[in-house]
Fold this protein.
Amino acid sequence: MSGEREPVTLDDVARQLDGVLAELFRVLYSIRNDVKALTTIVQDVAAREAQLMAEMRALDSQVASHEERLSRLEGLAPSTSEETTKRSA
């Protein structure tokens, strides 16, 4: 009878299971490596973001300082109306 199958033995099941487990371990190893690489990328981005935030705070402080200096300098300069009064006198 050609339609009959050979019985499945425990050895057959064990070989198939070994193959499935080997593939599973390859996939898990690949995922682990991907997670490590992505973690490194995220940490690098976080560090750069922290550096940029520090630079932005420094620039904001510098702009505030320049605005303060400009305000003081403008206070020392005579106003336009004072210059006109002096010229007409």
Q: What stands out?
A: Residues 10-76 form one domain.
